[in-house]
Amino acid sequence: MSETLNETSALALQMKIIDDPTWQQQRQAHWDEEHQDAYAECWPRTTVKAVKQLFMRGEINRKGLAKFSAGQRIRLYFDHFPIQSREAFEFILGQLEDDEVKKFDQSVKAATFFYALLKTEPDIRYGRFADQSKAQRLAIFDWFWGDKFDLNRRVPCLVGGSSLPMQITAMAVLRHFLSSVSSWMLCAEKHQATPLWLERSDFALSALYLIHDTSFSTAQYEGYDGDEELFQEGLWRLLAGPIKSAANKLPTHIKEMNQIRDKLLARFREIADHKPAFDTLWQHIDKHGVDFEREIKITFTLSDDQLTGWRSLILNDKRPTLVGENDEHECWCSAKALDTKLRRVLKQCNPLLEAAWDNAFANHQARVQFDRRNNSNGSIMLLYIFPKQVEDLDALEVSLIDIVSQLPVSDLSSWQYFGPI
């Protein structure tokens, strides 16, 4: 490292792991799989070598990293330092040079100490905080941010030898909080863990008292502030209603999501009682709803034999399109071709189901997507309905569940939730 550590310091003890052969082998595999090609395609060999030194040894070689901007270098330090701990972050912040200190702005703070630290990690091989327990990650959050949002708070350690103010807005805090909860509910089929943000809802909601009344407008935001836009979308979606199922096929984990939403709304209610503009918005949404279309998701599982048969029937023995952060999902066909291909399955199982499918969409226009998804519980099939012109979404959901329930499937569930604005 570019600065000698006290051999008895907490970080020095943590850094001993980098000399462990097993750790080195695993870290090298991580580098080879996730980073080597990505950097080699864009940067010269000396730059790639310097990034790898940081990744493997925690060595900050500014000469080797000189082709990166100051802001990019800060991201590299935080993202690639081999230890992700409070002590490591203090060390990194203390090492920043003048041009980097100037770039330690709201964006970097939010990316590192909101998004990355409290991100719900997908079930992937290499998680940035894989070595940190939930309690450890929350402890880092508490150290950096405190127990409630404070406009006057300063970074809790020296940054390049200087004491710096946080300079982050209440809106940025709430954007990350609401987006985390909203995305979790929007992607309920993933069976993700409860967002860590909910463990720090007291901190996030303390910022809600500082939001200006104009941000509770009943009109859709049309400006260029990403924080404002995502704040409104997340808040409106939560206020507009729970995840529901007209076919009474709501799975247990989604019922638990709705219970968590109810508890969050109770907290919102306490704040709205002291913010008339918030209360007015809430009443407006209760009365008029929101300009979000509800979408239908139907999930089920197939036996190995059925999965093989359906894949062959729908894909004509071609390879599926792989999507997702780690190619974990199979997109079985395009929306345009889906209707014809699904009919093959329906017709093979029961010719009457093909007519029932036609009847279900007789008075509706919708785009349909069919995927095989991997989540924390294994593999599921996802039938995703995006309404265009649907007279009765509840009736469409009930009709589709009636059709799918006659197929050789298990663990059948369905629900409706609001899509994007």
From TrEMBL:
Lineage of source species: Bacteria, Pseudomonadati, Pseudomonadota, Gammaproteobacteria, Alteromonadales
Organism: Corallincola holothuriorum
Name of this chain's protein: Uncharacterized protein
Superkingdom of the source species: Bacteria
